[in-house]
Amino acid sequence: MKYFFEQLGHTFIPLFKAIGKVTLMVKSAIVWLFKSKLEHAEVIKQSVRIGADSLIVVCLINFFTGMVLALQTGYSSKSLFNEPLYIGTIVGFSIIKELAPVLTAIVVAGRAGAAVTAEIGTMKVTEQLDALHTLGTNPARYLLIPRYIAFIITLPLLTVFADFLGVMGGFVVSLVKLGVPSSVYWNDIFTFMEISNFMHGFLKSIFFALIIATVSFHKGLGTKGGAEGVGKATTESVVTSMVLILVFDYFISAAFVFVGLI
Amino acid sequence: MIEIRNLVKKYQDKIILNGISADISEGEIFSIMGPSGSGKSTFIKCLVKLVVPDSGQIIVDGKDVLGDKNEFELAQMRRNFGYLFQDGALFDSLNVMENVCFGLKYLTDINPSKYEKIAKEKLSLVGLKDVSSLRVSELSGGMKKRVSLARAIVSEPKYILYDEPTTGLDPVNSEKISELILDMQAKLDITSIVVTHDLKLAFTISDRIAMLHGGKFDLPESPGKFRKSADPFVKKFIDDSICHEMKDSNGKK
After folding, report:
1. Which residue of A has its CA nearest to B87?
2. A118 alpha carbon, distance to own chain's centre
3. Phi, psi (deg, nearest 5) at residue B56
4. Which of A249, A262, B117, B207 has its CA 20 to 30 A from that of B186?
5. What letters, b where the CB count within 10 A reaches 16 and e where it falls short, cover B72-90?
6. For the residues A16-41, what does the mean pLDDT come to?
């Protein structure tokens, strides 16, 4: 029985500690957001960095995802109904509501999230974060707020790019490989899809941005040791962000369905 | 004036500072010596609340540093201090000029158009010219320390905390740093607290030297008295340091 409670403690105490630290970190960011001048230059710099870093990979991944989705849907429907049906509808719904936001968030977590953790972690182990305190500012004001805003701006924008490229990928395959006329493909999309479907994916990407920013910053701040610690924190950051994105994807989708944003 | 009373800091079960008390007068250079891991850096971090002690009092110019303070009051309190970090802690993402100007932006109300002029003055005070546009990665160890010192003094603080200012530097650069500390003292009338295990530096610059050992200060003494101390630990520390230096110089020969 004692062993059971010890194991329970080993599992849950670090979890509650982490939740406490994240809460304090977010509180500090909110306080400084309203009580200090926003670092506009830093927000722009970070937005360009996060967006430009991930743009090509996001476009490439979503284009090919759209392509493979159209291919699979087309041939499956051909084998069932003898002709490719509703390719545009299936590609559109899958990409815009689910795949584009999730895949984009995963790419951004892997690239920009990892970069933020490595940067903050390196600053921590080289005392640059302490230096911020002694120079009249603090990590929340100078580093956290600009990066939060940058993630919240760029991830939804990247998701819009991903939506477009994913649908275009599906279009290319359905036209060239499956011989579906372009008017049929676009008609399939626009007949069944509404603006709420787009908003479903778009709003989800904002939640994912919050997850990536929080995790990458929290892991960076918790870095201990030298280069090895930075590497460990970066890996943990990427893995934790990816897991949380996929887990919260279900709960956010369920919440959206519950409020009618289908 | 800085008054420290019964400062205690523990990391888990390990006692790092065990009831330290000291008074540091204005305009004084107060050095703290001690072996690695004795808590010297922890002590000076407590002075600006980068590390929060478990108990005790730190009173700077009559104000309690450790009392309940929000982040804004803390930032205000830290304006009195410049901090030279052990490895410089310069911001990698900024160049030299941006690093030095950083403090002006957040610590002062000076018009931004004057930042560059002030930063250049401070850089020349630490003996650096034509380095403004260099990246941190392009600087040598000695230059990093000097840029870091320029950054620490840019807002003209009343107190400067030096954390191992000569560690990792060759004798020539160490000499330059000790001259700089004395120069800062003479020109800017700053109170300096220097953490070091460099005997030569401590004997050259200090008004008083304290040995941090077993979480406590041995009585702070003038360099002359410190050198002749009867305390077995201080004697051993001085003898070992001299032996180490001699071995180093013989090895080099």
Report:
1. A126
2. 18
3. 110, 180
4. B117
5. eeebebbbbbbbbbbbbbb
6. 85
pLDDT tens digits, B59-80: 998 888 887 777 778 888 888 8
In whole angstroms, give the CA distance from residue A221 to residue A233: 9
β-sheet bridge partners, residue B20: B7
> Residue B219 is encoded by which pair of tokens?
């009585």
Q: Does position A150 have pLDDT exceeding 50, yes or no?
A: yes
Instruction: Please list the residues that pair with B209 across neighbouring strands.
Output: B31, B221
pLDDT at position A199 is 93
Q: Is the pLDDT of residue B171 over 90?
A: no
> Would the CB atoms of B83 and A134 count as touching at under 8 Å?
yes
- Of A128, A129, A224, A134, nearest to B87 by C-alpha is A128
- ipTM value, please give it: 0.87
Which residues fall within 8 angstroms of residue B126, CB to CB, at 6 or more apart?
A: B146, B147, B149, B150, B153, B180
Q: Are A159 and A201 in contact (CB under 8 A)?
A: yes
Angle at A130 between CA A127 and CA A135, to 5 degrees: 125
Tens of pLDDT, residues A107-130:
999 999 999 999 999 999 999 999
**Alpha helices (H) along A82-194:** 87-93, 100-108, 114-125, 128-134, 139, 145-176, 182-192
Does residue A167 contact residue A92 with C-beta atoms inside 8 Å? yes
What pTM did the predictor assign?
0.85
What are phi and psi for residue B207, nearest 5 degrees?
-85, -40
pLDDT in tens, B102-136: 989 888 888 999 999 999 998 988 888 889 899 99
A226's tokens: 């030298």
The closest CB to that of A134, out of B78, B92, B93, belongs to B78
**Calpha distance A168→A172 (Å, rounded):** 6
Interchain proximity A28–B71, CB inside 8 Å: yes
pLDDT bucket at B245, cuts 50 / 70 / 90:
low
The whole-angstrom distance between B154's CA and the closest CA on chain A is 10
User: Which of B69, B80, B91 would you mutate first to test chain A, the one with the most A CBs within 10 A?
Assistant: B91
Q: Is B75–A136 a contact, with Cβ atoms under 8 angstroms apart?
A: yes
A30 interfaces chain B, CB cutoff of 8 Å: no
- Beta bridge partners, A260, equal none
- Contacts by residues B239-245 (CB-CB < 8 Å, ≥ 24 positions apart): B241/B197, B241/B199, B242/B199, B245/B199, B245/B200
H or E stretch covering A230? helix A227-258
Whether residues A137 and B50 touch (CB distance < 8 A) is answered with no
Within 10 angstroms of residue A102's Cβ, the number of other Cβ atoms is 21
List the single best residue of B11, B46, B71, B108 to mutate versus A (max A Cβ within 10 A): B71
What is the per-residue pLDDT across B190-204, written as a single tens digit (0 to 9) for each? 899 999 988 888 999
